[in-house]
Write a structure and sequence with these properties.
Blueprint lengths: L3 E3 L10 H8 L9 E2 L9 E9 L18 E3 L7 H9 L4 E9 L4 E5 L13 E9 L4 E5 L2 E2 L8 E3 L5 E5 L5 E9 L2 H4 L7 H35 L3 H10 L8
Antiparallel strand pairs: 1-10, 2-3, 3-4, 3-5, 5-12, 6-11, 7-10, 7-12, 8-9, 8-11
C-alpha cells in the first residue's frame, strides 16, 4: 500500500494558513491544549479538540478514538475558531475526531503504528488527513521508511498503519490540523485511482491488520498480568538475591 499522497490539488477546499493562525492567536497559552492521551508516545504533544466523543474536552482521555463516527460531536472551542468552523462545515464526508495538534520544539513522537480505531488507512475507508499550519525545515516525519516534507496549507493523506515517528528539532512548535474522515464518494474522488494490485493489498490488510492488533492486545495483556503477579513475588526475590541486586518494578 502506498504510504502517502499530497491531496492539495484534488481536494475541493483550500486552507488559508494565515486565517488559521489568526484563529489560534487567542489560544497560544490556553488550557485548551490537552496532553496526548498516550504519554508513552510523546511528552510534548498537545491538542485542541474540535470534535471528540460527546464533545468532551475535560481531559486527555477525551481524545480516545472510536470506530463509530456518530460518537463524535463538535466541542465548545469550534465556536471560538470561526475559520476552522467554516472549514468543517464545507467537508462533505463523515467527520470523526478532529484536532489541532502541536508538537513542541525539541520534542519527538516515538516510533509506533496506529492500531484499531486509531488507524488511518485507505484499506479501511477511514483516513487521517494533515494540514500543516506552522512547521519548519527541522521537522522530520518518517512513515514506512519514507521521509515526508509537508508544506503549510497543503493537505496530506498518510497511511498511519505503517511505522512512523516525528522529530521537531526546530525552535518553534509544529502545528497541524488533523482530521479523521470516512471515505465516501465525495472524498474518494480526491485520491488517485486504485490499481488492481492495491485492491488486493487492501483486502489482505483488512484481514491481516485486525489479526495483528488482536495478537498485540493479547501480548500486552499477558505482559501486564505477568508483571502484576511477578513483581514482589518470592520467585522475583530469589532471582534478585542470586544476582545480588535490588528488585526493580516493571513500568
Amino acid at each position: 500500500m502506498r504510504t502517502w499522497f499530497d491531496l492539495t490539488d484534488t481536494f475541493p477546499i483550500r486552507f488559508d494558513v494565515e486565517r488559521m493562525k489568526a484563529d489560534l492567536a487567542a489560544f497560544q497559552n490556553s488550557a485548551a491544549w490537552l496532553s496526548h492521551y498516550d504519554t508513552a508516545l510523546s511528552q510534548g504533544w498537545r491538542a485542541i479538540l474540535l470534535k471528540s466523543k460527546g464533545g468532551d474536552v475535560s481531559g486527555p482521555a477525551a481524545q480516545q478514538p472510536s470506530w463509530d463516527f456518530s460518537d463524535y460531536e463538535r466541542t465548545p472551542y469550534v465556536d471560538q475558531l470561526p475559520y476552522f468552523r467554516e472549514l468543517m462545515d464545507r467537508i462533505e464526508c463523515p467527520q470523526g475526531r478532529m484536532r489541532i495538534m502541536r508538537l513542541g520544539p525539541g520534542m519527538t513522537i516515538n516510533l509506533h503504528r496506529d492500531v484499531g480505531a486509531e488507524v488511518g488507512c485507505l484499506a479501511f475507508r477511514q483516513v487521517r488527513l494533515h494540514v500543516p499550519i506552522v512547521t519548519n525545515d527541522r521537522v522530520t516525519f518518517f512513515v514506512g521508511g519514507e521521509k515526508i516534507k509537508m508544506k503549510p496549507g497543503n493537505l496530506y493523506y498518510v497511511n498511519f498503519s505503517k511505522l512512523h515517528y516525528v522529530k521537531n528539532e526546530g525552535d518553534e512548535p509544529r502545528t497541524h490540523l488533523v482530521m479523521d474522515l470516512q471515505v465516501n464518494d465525495w472524498l474518494a474522488r480526491c485520491f488517485p485511482s486504485t490499481r488492481r494490485w492495491e485492491e488486493f493489498e487492501f483486502a489482505v490488510a483488512r484481514t491481516a491488520l485486525p489479526a495483528y492488533w488482536r495478537m498485540r492486545k493479547l501480548k500486552v495483556k499477558a505482559e501486564r498480568q505477568f508483571w502484576s503477579h511477578y513483581n514482589g513475588s518470592l520467585p522475583q526475590q530469589i532471582v534478585h538475591r542470586l544476582r545480588g541486586d535490588t528488585p526493580a518494578r516493571s513500568p
